[in-house]
């Protein structure tokens, strides 16, 4: 069965006709099955490295809400911050995401440097 779709690429519309493959119509994939999983080189199971061990986080620790790279540190040790202040920026996939203080306090420790890779849940700053 043939279906027609309209696609827009960089402001130009294209009409594209797509033919659905079945066992009867496919010469390229004679054993095609819509429900059969397709296995690729990347889908073969591999052993994943063990996650790095981290120190448990305390109540004053401000943690990464996602994995990424530290793009900016907006506070200094000893600085006072209020709940809701931006204290850092993380970057992942060319997007910068602010790290927001979840409580007021003074920055007692900065646990990362600009350019460090961090994992979700990793402590970044400690507020006292």
Summarize the structure.
It is built from no helices and ten strands. The protein has strands spanning about 1-10, 10-20, 60-65, 70-75, 80, 85-90, 95-100, 105-110, 115-120, 125.
How does the helix and strand content classify structurally?
Answer: mainly beta
At the first level of CATH, the class of the largest domain is Mainly Beta
Give the strand line-up of the largest sheet.
3-10-8-5
Overall tally of structural domains: 2
- CATH-scheme architecture of the largest domain: Beta Barrel
How many individual helices? 0
User: Largest sheet, if any?
Assistant: 4 strands, antiparallel
Average per-residue pLDDT, rounded, comes to: 77
H/E element order: EEEEEEEEEE
% residues in beta strands: 35-45%
Question: How far is it from the N-terminal to the C-terminal residue, by CA?
Answer: 66 Å
Query: How large is the radius of gyration?
Result: 25 Å
Give the CATH superfamily of the largest domain: RNA polymerase II/Efflux pump adaptor protein, barrel-sandwich hybrid domain
- Give unreliable regions as ranges: 32-56
Compute the number of strand runs: 10
CATH topology of the largest domain: OB fold (Dihydrolipoamide Acetyltransferase, E2P)
Gross morphology: elongated
Estimate percent helicity: under 10%
